[in-house]
UniProtKB/TrEMBL annotation:
One Gene Ontology CC term in the entry: postsynaptic membrane
Disulfide bond annotation, renumbered to this chain: C757-C814
Transmembrane stretches, start-end: 574-592, 644-670, 829-853
Keyword Heme: no
Purpose of the protein: NMDA receptor subtype of glutamate-gated ion channels with high calcium permeability and voltage-dependent sensitivity to magnesium. Mediated by glycine. This protein plays a key role in synaptic plasticity, synaptogenesis, excitotoxicity, memory acquisition and learning. It mediates neuronal functions in glutamate neurotransmission. Is involved in the cell surface targeting of NMDA receptors. Plays a role in associative learning and in long-term memory consolidation.
Domain of life according to the entry: Eukaryota
Region: Disordered, residue numbers: 905-924
Protein's GO biological process: ionotropic glutamate receptor signaling pathway
Residues the record marks as site: Interaction with the cone snail toxin Con-ikot-ikot: R707
Domain (Ionotropic glutamate receptor L-glutamate and glycine-binding) ranges: 448-519
Family matches, as CDD domains: PBP1_iGluR_NMDA_NR1 (cd06379), PBP2_iGluR_NMDA_Nr1 (cd13719)
Full protein name: Glutamate [NMDA] receptor subunit 1
Species in which this protein is naturally found: Anopheles minimus
Keywords from the UniProt entry: Calcium, Cell membrane, Disulfide bond, Glycoprotein, Ion channel, Ion transport, Ligand-gated ion channel, Magnesium, Membrane, Phosphoprotein, Postsynaptic cell membrane, Receptor, Signal, Synapse, Transmembrane, Transmembrane helix, Transport
Amino acid sequence: MKLTRMLPASCLLLSLMIPQALLAQKPTGSESPSYYNIGGVLSNNESESHFGTVIAHLNFDQQYVPRGTTYYDKTIRIDKNPIKTALNVCKHLISRRVYAVVVSHEPTGDLSPAAVSYTSGFYQIPVIGISSREAAFSDKNIHVSFLRTVPPYYHQADVWLEILSHFGYTKVIIIHSSDTDGRAVLGRFQTTSQTNYDDIDVRATVESIVEFEPKLDSFSSYLMEMKTAQSRVYLLYASQEDAYVIFRDAAIHNMTEYGHIWIVTEQALSANNTPTGIIGLKLNNAENETDHIKDAIYILASAIKEMTVNETITEAPKDCDDSGAIWESGKRLFGYLKTRNIRGETGQVAFDDNGDRMYAEYDVINVHENHSFEKVGSFHYDSEKRKMRLKINDSSITWPGNTGKKPEGIMIPTHLKVLTIEEKPFVYARKLLDDEIDCADDEVVCPHFNITNGNEQEYCCKGYCIDLLKALAQRINFTYDLALSPDGQFGHYQLKNHTTGIGTTVKKEWNGLIGELVAERADLIVAPLTINPERAEFIEFSKPFKYQGITILEKKPSRSSTLVSFLQPFSNTLWILVMVSVHVVALVLYLLDRFSPFGRFKLSSNDGTEEDALNLSSAIWFAWGVLLNSGIGEGTPRSFSARVLGMVWAGFAMIIVASYTANLAAFLVLERPKTKLTGINDARLRNTMENLTCATVKGSSVDMYFRRQVELSNMYRTMEANNYDTAEQAIQDVKDGKLMAFIWDSSRLEYEASKDCELVTAGELFGRSGYGVGLQKASPWTDAVTLAILDFHESGFMESLDKEWIFHGNVQQCEQFEKTPNTLGLKNMAGVFILVGAGIVGGIGLIIIEVVYKKHQIKKQKKMEIARHAADKWRGTIEKRKTLRASLAMQRQYNVGLNSVSKSVSSQNAEKTRYPMLPPLPRTPERAWPKDKEYIVNRKNNSAGKPPPRYMPTYATDVSHLIV
């Protein structure tokens, strides 16, 4: 033990006894140097003395210094004047070939370490800072070879995030000065939050950023703006002087009382008026230069040892006059230094790519009553897990207001701005008419602010989601202002490049409802908003108020009805064959009955007349009558052979009529066809054909679903060109037949199908999800809204909304419509009526022809009557003349007879000879003249034995030649 205590003094004595000539010795050949001068720019004598002691001890530590290698110290005092510091570095350090420089921080100046870094960095000589914490030293474009064993101030943002995660605060307000370090704190906080905290639910987001100019006089105006924010967690980066002003004004505005949380950095914690309950940080070993000197020297020795094993180290620059000499070994040595990771006096020492200290340990300080500082936790390195770990004793914390109860960290507003979007049946939007003052009782005012032209129009909204909003407001006690989506979109993102201080990053920018919520211009979204991973990354969702999926809407395929629909049961060929068969059978029946010897027979044994054989027109009438099942009153076959054929034809007609009736029922009274598509896996959708078009809504959740499904990529590429701006346009095109398949949320499509029975949803649901209420990240209303929705499900309130707004009672009606077979309508049977009409028109046409023909016949008969009348008159005249001559002749004969009897007898004989008995004339009654009746009577009398009349008129048997 005594030897150990004496070792530093003996080592120091040994180093002083080394001859000066040895210091000027140069290595020979290509080997690395056997000695290394280490420069130190320190702030006081104690540090200089300790610097030499540590190097003396280092020479005896074989773990870091191999045999044949020796380290020497070269120190100078840091000067307030950075120019003098730079000159001293050149004169007393670089001229002695130092391989690295350890620099401290002058208590009253900030530029001296920078002067050392600039000077040494010009020659690529590594510089290790042990107290410089400004953000500027992280810029490797300026400080090319600077690294430090203390972390920069902005690294405290890492501890802030751990503290916020521990307490569950997810929304904060950052207050920082507008200098380099203040902006670096903000950048570090945002970058680390997005990089290291994958779970969006626990990630801290910045609600507001307050940037102020240093050297404040008043901070009240900033505090008034902060009061309107929702967050009550304040992260403060400020100097001691500025922090004093901020705390002073915050106390005046009661923003240091219960409900407000202040988490500050080291500088702000040192203000004289830090309020009770503030939580701050304090770096371990921040002012312990001796420990940092030792860690810096041992890190340097470790890097040189590893470098000598891998490569040769060349000599360091010898003066500042050789401006063209760049020490390449120094550049590589700096790379070795950044890879160090050792356990030192100040904890685990490692460096990031900027050369900044990693794994720095902090104490978590809480300001108690009477301005006492108490350690309530620590941020330390866990050697087992090899990462930093935060440990806080919550029970020992005093919060603002001198209470032990942890504040919520947010102010819960009771008046919310709610957004929705028109989407039937969830939201019906009706434009308020000019003569209307207010909306109806079941409606809510929902103005629409058009972001394109800046106009605002008043609308009235009602529907499923509006009733849900009313119930939520009543259940969890808040008021609201409702508005429609500014751009009429649900919201989709676009990837855009954003340039920051650390480089270019790609971010998602949202529009529509989601964009309004992400930008915190709205508090709530009550709409049919589908829950999906892309949206859940940026906003909160309640539990689903309606579970649904994605389905396909199409128009039911209907059989086309034409004027000849009644002919559909038979093909055209069969109808032609039936028509031909009717006339062929009629012709054969006529021939059989015509040539059969038994085709004619007497009606009775006493009647001598015979029935005529079946003529052709009667045969055709008989064939059609049998086929059409009509009674045949006349014109039936009489021969046995014809009757056999008639029976066969009757059987044929029975089969044809029965088949027609059955097929008519099958064709026109079938069960209604359902769908054309079988679902999303239908091959016609996967390999879209030209005559099959499908689409969805641009930027919707369905569009996002197809975009991320690899197996649907081919289908999505085809759909993308057909997508619509709104669902209403697509549904209307489905009804009009312009779009065959519309892919959308099942709730909306089921509503459309229940409203219009001609529409139907195809296949099973896919991409199942739910509609949820959208809220801001870390919104205080999330749990309340979720619990209310779960209660609505249990009480049956959501089911009542489904029945009232989605189904409207039409589902049963459509189901009944599906089960009921089709009835034949005018569309189907119009051809039959047209056929009857054609028969009527044909009959009327035939009767007209018959009337015209009959008139012609009557005219001809009249001419015949005139001719006959003229002949009768002429015949009468002739008869009168004959009668007169006969009378005169008889009178003369009578006069002669009186004179002589003999002459009378002879006269009588002569008269018999002159007027003999005439045979009966072969005249028909139709051809008889009117006066022929007397002749017929005379004939009968003559046949009875009576003599003919004494005087017989003479008639002309044929007078047709007299007709003109």
